[in-house]
Amino acid sequence: ENSFLSQDAYVRADSGRWGETIEVQMQASLGKAIENYRESLKYIPDAAVEKHIRELEATLESRKKFVENVRLSKQLRAEADGVLRDARAETSFEASQEKFTRAIDLYNRSLSLYLPPDEPTLRQIVYGAGKEKISRAFRKFYTDCSALEREGRIVEALAACEKAVENRYAGMHEGEWILLGGQVQNLRSRIAHAKKMRAQGEGEERAGKITGAVASYRESLKNVPDTALEEHVKALEAKLVEANQGKMTADNLWQE
């Protein structure tokens, strides 16, 4: 037992001294102490010694559990390192995001089991992985937003921009953030105006004011292109042309 206590004091003086080799020696010393105490009880029963044996047994089990946790912690960290490498090399956005999430989870599970001497470094790795995951998501959605807007897919562009906003990350350029905010506001305004003009056109159409309805619909389409609405407007325009031609024919006949 004194050998164990001496080794324990040596390790406690500097946590960097601990290792599995010295831990095995410490556990062996504890086991031998328990064995010898039990042997002595065969000759001289002693309640205090029995109590002390139980305490040493609890200490031994605790240390065995600690070593198990250390080993599992190291396995999880090694696995996390591999998953993080895969995440950075992954070309699929969805797959890379899943791998970043898994790597971070593995690192955190590792830290929950054992705090290694390089704990600050490991926590920086976890922080960096989280930031990289978010920044990649921001870049992806911001790029999608601009591309969709160029294609005239305004509603989808706004959805992508809003996802980019959700993935703002520490350290991003302030100017870029301001530009994105302006883009989001512009898209929202376009959609709101398109909805307003479409509703106005529908009201005009119901009232039989087809010319006004077409003008309102066209204003809506200028802000938010819509294939179905475009086809509907073309049909209304064809009816207007037909009606005008009919009117012109009737006017000609009347003049004759």
List the helices and strands and how they pair.
Layout (H helix, E strand, L loop, with lengths): L1 H12 L6 H22 L5 H43 L3 H21 L5 H32 L3 H13 L7 H33 L3 H14 L3 H29 L1
Helix pairs in contact: 1-2, 2-3, 3-4, 4-5, 5-6, 6-7, 7-8, 8-9
Walk me through the structure.
86% of the residues lie in helices and 0% in strands. It is mostly helical and 256 residues long. The protein is rod-shaped. 17% of the residues are buried.
Estimated share of beta-strand residues? under 5%
Uncertain regions spanning at least 5 consecutive residues: none
By DSSP, the count of extended strands is: 0
| Termini separation | 128 Å
Nutshell version of this structure?
Helix content is 86%, strand content 0%. It is mainly α and 256 residues long.
Keywords:
256 residues, mainly alpha, 9 helices, rod-shaped
